Amino acid sequence: xxxxxxxxxxTLDGRVLSYLDFGGTGRPLLxxxxxxxxxxxxxxxAAALGPDWRVIAPDQRGHGDSDRAGDYxxxxxxxxxxxxxxxxxxxxxxxxxxxxxxxxxxxxxAEHPSLVEAFINVDAPADLPDHGxxxxxxxxxxxxxxxxxxxxxxxxxxxxxxxxxGLRPLAxxxxxxxxxHPQDTVDSExxxxxxxxxxxxxxxxxxxxxxxxxxxxxxxxxxxAMAERRPTTAYRALDTDHFVLQADPQGSAALVRExxxxx
Length: 263
Description:
Blueprint: E1 6-12, E2 15-21, E3 27-32, H1 43-49, E4 53-58, H2 74-88, E5 93-98, H3 100-111, E6 116-122, E7 127-128, E8 145-146, H4 149-155, H5 160-163, E9 168-169, E10 176-177, H6 182-192, E11 194-195, H7 197-202, E12 207-212, H8 220-229, E13 233-238, H9 244-247, H10 249-261
Parallel strand pairs: 3-4, 3-5, 5-6, 6-12, 12-13
Antiparallel strand pairs: 1-2, 2-4, 7-11, 8-10, 9-10
């Protein structure tokens, strides 16, 4: 049974950060989505983890119902998460993140260890080389807004079915917008490229690396090296692509529950 979350928000320097709270009295789990996604992507996982875990899933800056930001650096993303945890009154939490969210999760654990009890990295690499053009550069051909929903979907071409559930009406009623800004997305994705080994290896809390064996982002040799080089890290793999939680929701939920039960 799906869980109907409450949508809440806080304002940071005049910018809205929106988040979904799946409720309950369980322990807090902060769930961080990847690029082109949003907090609602964790609805099925939240249902699978309840009632032991209260899932909090922000729309990270520039995504979903959260406002666009002036920068998409790691410092910016982490500042939002720290402010959100303070707003919630959460002193210590488990963090789960996919892709961009996974990188943000293990950076938070490395740089603010007092806030993170444990983390789950879903298919986010410790080293993401820059091979030139962003793999998300195709979104630069999408308009951010259009007069009608159908017009916006048509402009997205083959990606229309994927983006359709997240389209939003503009606040002034003049049209529709994407749940992400194309240029912001490419800027953010470009900034996540690089060597994150230092941050991956810095923290000492328990961690789960959940890997898709057919991942487009995390090669198997690197995933195995990440698990081997970082103590207190469990490695689990599923026969999926990069989008592990969506490709195998039952298998991934079972592995997440297994890890959480051991904390």
